[in-house]
Amino acid sequence: MRLPIEGMTCTSCVSHITKAVQKVDGVESVKVDLGSESAVVGFDAAVTSLTVIVAAISVAGYEPHPERAAPFVPVPSQGILVRLGLRRGGDQPGRDH
Ligand code: 9UX
């Protein structure tokens, strides 16, 4: 699912959050995005929950917003969306501290 997170201001924040979420048992994938201030997290709902993931992010010092979390629907090809101008391509350039 896609989880909004406030408090990320540099690319190191992205790796801090990524590591914190990866340490949670049951998390299968995590992609933190600075530009959209959110993380897409895949997890085994039999092992963990959004509540546990949110707690891990809070402990790491950031402000997750589970009340605005939404299901993440993967798109077949991001390239097509980029060409249509519906989505920017590539990663955000890192900001200096
Ligand atoms: Mo993010 Mo940079 O917490 O000091 S602003 S790592």
Name the structural class. Answer: alpha+beta
Distance between the termini: 29 Å
The gyration radius over C-alpha positions equals 14 Å
Q: What characterizes the major β-sheet?
A: 4 strands, antiparallel
**Helix residue percentage:** 25-40%
**What is the 3D form?**
globular
- For the record, the CATH class of one domain is Alpha Beta
CATH architecture assignment of one domain: 2-Layer Sandwich
Following the backbone from N to C, one meets helices and strands in this order, namely EHEEHEH
- The beta-strand count equals 4
Average pLDDT, all residues: 88
Instruction: Identify every distinct bound molecule in the structure, by name, code or SMILES.
Output: dioxo(di-mu-sulfide)dimolybdenum
CATH topology of one domain: Alpha-Beta Plaits
Q: In summary, what is this structure?
A:
The protein has 97 residues and is of the alpha+beta class. It has 3 helices and 4 strands, in the order E-H-E-E-H-E-H.
Descriptive account of the structure:
- This protein is of the alpha+beta class.
- The protein has a domain of 67 residues: Alpha-Beta Plaits.
- The protein has 3 helices and 4 strands.
- The longest helix is centred in the first third of the chain and has 12 residues.
- The chain is globular, with a radius of gyration of 14 Å.
- The mean pLDDT is 88.
- Bound molecules: dioxo(di-mu-sulfide)dimolybdenum (9UX).
- The site of dioxo(di-mu-sulfide)dimolybdenum (9UX) has 6 residues, from α1.
